[in-house]
Amino acid sequence: MTAVNLLDFDLAGLTAYCEQLGEKRFRATQLFRWIHQRGACDFSHMSDLAKSLRERLGGVAEVRVPAVISEQASADGTIKWLFDVGGGDAVETVFIPEDDRGTLCVSSQAGCAVGCRFCSTGHQGFSRNLTTAEIVGQLWHAEHQLRVRLNLAEGTRAITNVVLMGMGEPLQNYAALLPALRVMLDDHGYGLSRRRVTVSTSGVVPMMDRLRADCPVALAVSLHAPDDALRDDLVPLNRKYPLNELLSACSRYLESAPRDFITFEYCMLDGVNDSLAHAAQLVELVQGSGGQPISCKFNLIPFNPFPASGLLRSPRERVLQFAKALQDAGIVTTIRKTRGDDIDAACGQLAGEVQDRTRLRQRLAGRVHIPIVAEAPNVLQIDLTAAHEGHP
User: I need a surface site. Which of 121, 156, 197, 364 has the fewest CB within 10 A?
Assistant: First the structure.
């Protein structure tokens, strides 16, 4: 019989599982705390559980985290892990330390089906969704390893913020994402506030509405263009959920969001979407007279080139001019700090290893590449400022 991986359960799920074993509900809370707060994976060490329960769990359940294939540390303190999720697939997870917080960027899929041309993950195609255990396992490993490495006092968290901005589109793996979020937020688990957990999406409108109803956390939207014509090229999902639908979903999300703004991510591509005219269009888009203005901030992302993209990073001076245009219009705007690029852990650089079941690379090999026709990255959108509680 295959052992049940308890990392697949949020507290409600673990309670139901314990009840199936004939145990009282409070046993699930004890077990949940041992796993997530204390990092225990050996049931024999869970001293306040009845010996009979410990022995029974040892025969039917496990706490199994994806195996670490490699770990790399950047000169700036960023750490990247490559996790083996089986079947020839591996995913990447990144920890970004700051003076006042530690942010973990978590993957939700092996590969990505959005197919973003200037995103390394998108170029690898898509293999499968991760399970809840594989999503939570990234946090479990990082949190408990870092506590030891950093010699933190008992009860002190190494990770204060989690961003679902690694490999994959989180909202296309909603069934596994939702319980993973609940584990992160649960006071018996990692106890993170909703303001400190961020889901980044390319704009899966129906699932944005479901997240708003089920478990509203901070939201970041990969925008990258001010109009449908350009965004159709930059973000292929726009062809299904165009800007008017996306912005309406953003407005609805704000009704329940833990933050009073949406973060719009905008990757700066030289000669593609970085002119002052584009900036003016963005201002009109979010503040336009035709509808209700959207409370938002912009996070401008320096593009991290890779050979297959055929695209270039916007010059620094142009990025500054673009930011000033947005700021002069009263929009809070930040420019992403590039972190971990010496270990390919910066925005859009996560690749891992993916057994592509979509044959994306074969299809791209036969396509004539036009540099302006690029697809927006939805991976590693690590908005360190938006992930910081209390940021305006």
Answer: 156
Distance separating alpha carbons of residues 130 and 318, to the nearest angstrom: 38
264 shares its domain with 124: yes
Confidence category of residue 308, pLDDT binned at 50, 70, 90: confident
Lowest mean pLDDT among 32-41, 212-221, 244-253, 348-357: 348-357
**Is 253 within the bounds of a domain?**
yes
Active site residue 143: no
Q: pTM of the full predicted structure?
A: 0.88
Judge if 9 and 42 occupy the same domain.
yes
Q: Are residues 22 and 142 in the same domain?
A: no
pLDDT of residue 360: 54
Average pLDDT over residues 212-216: 97
CA distances from 319 to 205, 299, 384 (A): 29, 11, 18
Query: Does 347 qualify as catalytic in the annotation?
Result: yes
The whole-angstrom separation of Cα 190 and Cα 249 is 29
The single-letter DSSP state of residue 130 is: P
Q: How many domains does the chain have?
A: 2
| Domain-located, residue 58 | yes
For residue 151, give the DSSP letter: T
Q: Is pLDDT larger for residue 74 or for residue 119?
A: 74
Q: Which candidate in 23, 92, 169, 265 is catalytic?
A: 92
Tell me which of 215, 250, 267, 347 is the catalytic residue.
Answer: 347
Q: Please check whether residues 29 and 95 belong to one and the same domain.
A: no
Give the structural domain span for 22. Answer: 4-62
